[in-house]
Amino acid sequence: MSLRGDMAAHTDEYFEKNEKRSGYFTHKDTDFGRIDRAGVTEKQIDAIYMAMLVESFIPVYTEMLLHMRRFRAPSDEFTIIWAREELLHFRVLRSALLALGVPERKLEFDVDKIRSTRNWEEIGRIESPFGPLKNEIYPLTNTMIQEKSTEIFYHSLANRVEDPIVKKILKQLAGDEARHHQYMYKALKLHLEYDPGGWPAAMRAIMEYNMPGHYQMEKYQEIGSEAAKTAGVDSKAASKEIRDKLFEILGWKVIPAGALLLIKKRFSKPPKIIRSTEINFKR
Questions:
Q1: DSSP class of residue 268?
Q2: How far apart are CA 176 and CA 174, in angstroms?
Q3: How many domains does one find in the chain?
Q4: CATH of the domain at 212
């Protein structure tokens, strides 16, 4: 077999499983009118609002990913189905927030602001490791971390929300993110099996990792930290879980001596490709 052949088989397996649950998130499945506002605190609404804004960026983020992966089948094929699922996350969170009393005008205004933060002048100049891709190791690692982080966030927040409908929505979102993470995990493992020398790109991705919101919103670190605190996310435990997943792929227990120095020598930091925008969370 070849890397492309193995990745095609891996992607086909994901597609087959996905078809069995197609339409999982539709408005007919959820009676948003029965959401009990008393079962969701103001801080929890803010955390959901932050997540909704990050998910709302999917059309722009997908445009960027497809641009980078235009010669990288079947990764470009997976990106399309992944984007559809993430867009459904945005739509269901949007409906839940409207049911919780967030003004529609405010919500749409902020979504438009987030989606306007694209910067194609810089995207056109991007080179490896995060550009028109020569290999997938850096972005796969980045996305694997992103999906696991989001899974942990939704799962943790679901455990704290009292309203049963919002709780169910968040648990379903966490399940989707877990499936995405597993796809990325296996894909990264396949790439590293065919290119064992590519591990520095994976470690570099960990060192430079930021959630997409970091590039979308001013003060995202502060906003994201508050949302994680509200959700009850154990940041140290989450970081260890993510690191252990990568070490499992690499067959490491600890980082080998000299590895960090080698990474710093081999890679320069990729450019920021999205300009952030300031969001007023006051409703």
A1: P
A2: 5
A3: 1
A4: 1.10.620.20
pLDDT digits (tens, 9 = 90+) for 165-223: 999 999 999 999 999 999 999 999 998 888 888 888 887 777 777 777 776 777 888 88
Contacts of 218 (CB under 8 A, 6+ apart): 276, 277, 278, 279
- 281 in any annotated domain: no
Comparing CA positions, the residue from 145, 168, 170 lying closest to residue 157 is 170
Strands (E), the chain: none
Q: Which residue has the tokens 């396949």?
A: 190
Rounded to an integer, what distance in angstroms lies between the CA atom of residue 210 and that of residue 121? 21
Are the beta carbons of 158 and 177 closer than 8 angstroms? Answer: no
Kindly provide the b/e burial profile for residues 179-195, where b requires at least 16 CB atoms within 10 angstroms of the residue's own CB.
bbbebbbbbbbbbbeee
Residue 90, domain extent: 3-266
Residue 182 lies in a domain: yes
Gap between the Cα atoms of 56 and 91, Å rounded: 8
Report yes or no on 280 lying in a domain: no
